[in-house]
Each structure stands twice: as C-alpha cells, then as structure tokens.
Amino acid sequence: MANVESFDLDHTKVSAPYVRLAGVKRTPRGDAISKYDLRLLQPNAGAIDPAAIHTLEHLLAGYLRDHLTDVVDVSPMGCRTGMYMAVIGEPNEEGVLTAFEAALRDVEAHERPIPGVSELECGNYRDHDLDQARTHARDALAQGLKVQPTILIER
Ligand SMILES: [Zn+2]
C-alpha cells in the first residue's frame, strides 16, 4: 500500500484541540494544496457522536470558508475526533488557527436550521445533533486551540 502521512503521526504525543499542517502537495502545474488536521478531541480519549460530527461537517463547510479563502474540502476524520481540511495554497498555521477559532465561534452561536439538512441535500439528513455540535465547539474554544507540530512515530 501507498504510505499515508497520518499513520506516521504519533497520536500519543499530540495535545488537542489543535490545528496541524499535515502536508503540502504540488500539482503538475506547480500549485500547492495544503492538508490540515483540525483536531477537536484528544485521540483515543473519546469520540464525537456521529450525529454531532455530521452537524459539525455541515456547519464548518460554510463557516470555515467564511474565514479562510480557497478551502477545497472539510471532512470528518473516521475516528471522529476532528476534521480534515484541504486548502489551495499554503496558508500559515497561525492563520488557519485563527480561522478555525472564528468558525468554531460561529458554530457555537449557530441557531437552527442546520444548512443542507433535507432529503434533497444530504445523505443522512435525520442524523444530526446541533446541541452537541455546539457543545464541542464551545469546549474546544474553552480549552484553547494551538498549533500542533508533527511528531513522527519512531519506528
Ligand atoms: Zn449531511
């Protein structure tokens, strides 16, 4: 199998909540695409309920783009402790941190309706939990987000 960057990160040595630059790819034309981890929960110490991380996905899809240009994608981590983000260019970590904090403040303040929640717009529109999504945003902000450097597993 191809090597996957995130499998080289030592998940026991990170301190959530954080943003981490996971890597930068160059397209054949030379453009940069940066991938970030936006981690909300400490790895292996709990997980966001599926309904809540689904709502976070819907809300951050819009709110992160309000605070950071050229976002390609924001998707839940399968482990349900945070989100992945792909963005065109190489925004610095402090800028991504500031944008993520601003987006989380928007999530914390968000009132119904949740955007994109209908049978037409979503693949599982009944599976949402706005209250828990807001609680996770509030908790992460209260704990204080930081820039997490990459610490590789020593093999
Ligand atoms: Zn959905």
Automatic annotation (TrEMBL):
Quaternary organization: Homodimer.
Record keywords: Autoinducer synthesis, Iron, Lyase, Metal-binding, Quorum sensing
Keyword hit for Iron: yes
Binding residues annotated for Fe cation, in chain numbering: 54, 58, 122
Function in brief: Involved in the synthesis of autoinducer 2 (AI-2) which is secreted by bacteria and is used to communicate both the cell density and the metabolic potential of the environment. The regulation of gene expression in response to changes in cell density is called quorum sensing. Catalyzes the transformation of S-ribosylhomocysteine (RHC) to homocysteine (HC) and 4,5-dihydroxy-2,3-pentadione (DPD).
Cofactor(s) required, per the database record: Fe cation
InterPro entries xref list: LuxS_sf, Metalloenz_LuxS/M16, S-ribosylhomocysteinase
E.C. code: 4.4.1.21
Keyword Iron: yes
GO molecular function list: iron ion binding; S-ribosylhomocysteine lyase activity
Protein name per Swiss-Prot or TrEMBL: S-ribosylhomocysteine lyase
Cofactor binding annotation: Binds 1 Fe cation per subunit.
GO biological process: quorum sensing
Catalytic activity of the protein: S-(5-deoxy-D-ribos-5-yl)-L-homocysteine = (S)-4,5-dihydroxypentane-2,3-dione + L-homocysteine
Pfam family, one: LuxS
Stated family: Belongs to the LuxS family.
